[in-house]
């Protein structure tokens, strides 16, 4: 990373953290919707665990 003034670095970190939290909440909402769909389709507990345990999908 470049050598930036401390105020710029601080604001950059704060902004990236806030955006990361917003993204995490969006992913959690999507996963909860997926879980509801799985349960509605009769997925077993083991199938739900397997779905949540799979590695992060590529973008």
Please give the structural blueprint.
Blueprint: H1 6-40, H2 45-53
- The helix tally amounts to 2
Low-confidence stretches: none
Strand content: under 5%
Radius of gyration: 18 Å
Average of pLDDT: 90
Distance between the termini: 24 Å
Summarize the helix and strand pattern as letters.
HH
Structural class call reads mainly alpha
Shape: elongated
How many β-strand stretches?
Answer: 0
Helical fraction equals over 70%
Largest sheet, if any?
A: none
Q: What's a quick, concise take on this entry?
A:
The protein is mostly helical and 59 residues long. It has 2 helices and no strands.
Describe this structure in words.
The chain has 59 residues and is mostly helical. The chain has helices spanning 6-40, 45-53. The radius of gyration is 18 Å and the shape is elongated. The two termini are 24 Å apart. The mean pLDDT is 90.
What are the key terms here?
mainly alpha; 59 residues; 2 helices
């Amino acid at each position: 990373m470049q050598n930036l003034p401390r105020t710029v670095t601080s604001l950059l970190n704060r902004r990236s953290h806030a955006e990361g939290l917003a993204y995490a909440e969006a992913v959690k909402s999507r996963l909860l919707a997926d879980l509801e769909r799985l349960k509605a389709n009769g997925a077993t507990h083991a199938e739900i665990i397997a779905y949540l345990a799979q590695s992060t999908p590529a973008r």
